[in-house]
From TrEMBL:
Protein name (Swiss-Prot/TrEMBL): Nucleoside hydrolase
Annotated GO MF terms: hydrolase activity
UniProt keyword list: Glycosidase, Hydrolase
Organism domain of life: Bacteria
Annotated stretches, region: Disordered: 315-347
Family matches, as PANTHER family: INOSINE-URIDINE PREFERRING NUCLEOSIDE HYDROLASE, URIDINE NUCLEOSIDASE
Length: 347
């Protein structure tokens, strides 16, 4: 029997982070050791509470959750994406207060300690601004040596950005942190908008989740409503959404093998001009099929097979149904508010 892969997720729990958490928590070959949160889609503390609530839907109260940085490396507050993820970050679905507390330890300390305890076997998955990882690197410069692999959902290579014409939210909300993390000597994979915007969740996804009726599936279906509202209005020509963080989670876990993921030299624009926050990937060898280059620092996923949303539904449908959960309505334990406010965009 294969030993489950130890993994720590650093996130800013919005709707797609929540789906990624459920996917990983329900994967028998993944040992989700800890979750840390950072300001991005919502405040770091709110993201930690969201995380505990989501994990409790599948009985995973054993996973420590710690809140981290609520400001960027430069000290500014991120632009919370309430109009994308809802006022509470999880699609305005109201879940019961978690029974497990947010950990007393700081997220940065939890990242470092979890890496040390895993003895080189830990994979890191970052689906949020990279502030926590940048601070962890400052505190423990040997961190890349202590972990097996780092997967970052963020950036855009050929695809437009989603907070500016060039910048994606996770990179663009703290470019200095992203530049510091990408410059470190990780075994690094980047999952940009180029692939996450082409793996789409749809109303059929919602119907499949509701039909199963488990608390996790009903929550996921209800949380997608606000997320779909945003994508339908500004990003996609149909009612649906991108599959940002769950796809990155599946790639981090080895469940999705990219069709095209060349090793490239990647940097981040940290200037104050219109390109601030852009992921700068050197793709000039496109017509040479991206030969290996000596200065490459990241594997950049540029093509997947487009079938992951179905796999996501299959995984979430392994959660235990509740006898009193109706397939056409939210669970009695949760409710939905429909208030939408303006804010920043986040992936």
């Amino acid at each position: 029997m294969t030993t489950p892969q130890p993994l720590l997720m650093d996130c800013d729990t919005g709707v797609d982070d929540a789906l990624a958490l459920l996917y990983l928590a329900l994967s028998p070959d993944v040992d989700l050791r800890a979750v840390t949160t950072v300001g991005g889609n919502t405040a770091a503390r709110q993201a930690a509470v969201n995380t505990l609530q989501v994990l409790e839907l599948v009985g995973r109260t054993d996973i420590p959750v710690a809140a981290g940085a609520d400001r960027t490396l430069n000290g500014s507050l991120p632009h919370y994406a309430t109009h994308v993820h809802g006022d509470n970050g999880i699609g305005n679905v109201q879940l019961p207060a978690p029974t497990a507390p947010v950990a007393d330890t700081d997220a940065v300390d939890l990242i470092i300690e979890t890496a040390r305890q895993a003895d080189g076997a830990l994979s890191l998955l970052a689906t949020a601004p990279l502030t926590n990882l940048a601070l962890a690197l400052r505190r423990e410069p040997r961190l890349p040596e202590l972990v097996r692999h780092l997967t970052v959902m963020g950036g855009a290579v050929h695809h437009p950005g989603n907070i500016t014409p060039l910048a994606e939210a996770n990179i663009g909300n703290d470019p200095e942190a992203a530049a510091l993390v990408l410059a470190a000597d990780w075994d690094l994979t980047i999952v940009p908008l180029d692939v996450t915007m082409r793996e789409n969740l749809t109303t059929a996804t919602q119907r499949d989740l509701l039909a199963h009726g488990s608390p996790a599936c009903v929550f996921a279906a209800r949380a997608l409503d606000v997320y779909f509202d945003f994508h339908e209005e500004v990003a996609l020509p149909f009612r649906g959404s991108a599959c940002h963080d769950p796809l990155a989670a599946a790639i981090a876990a080895g469940h999705v093998v990219p069709r095209l993921a060349p090793r490239l030299h990647v940097d981040v624009e940290t200037g104050d001009g219109p390109a601030r926050g852009a992921l700068v990937a050197d793709t000039r060898a496109l017509y040479l099929s991206y030969p290996e280059r000596a200065d490459a620092n990241a594997r950049v996923v540029l093509e997947t097979d487009g079938r992951f949303p179905g796999r996501l539904v299959e995984r979430l449908r392994t959660s235990t149904p509740a006898a009193d959960t109706a397939s056409d309505s939210a669970s009695p334990a949760m409710s939905t508010r429909t208030t939408r406010t303006n804010g920043g965009t986040a992936a």
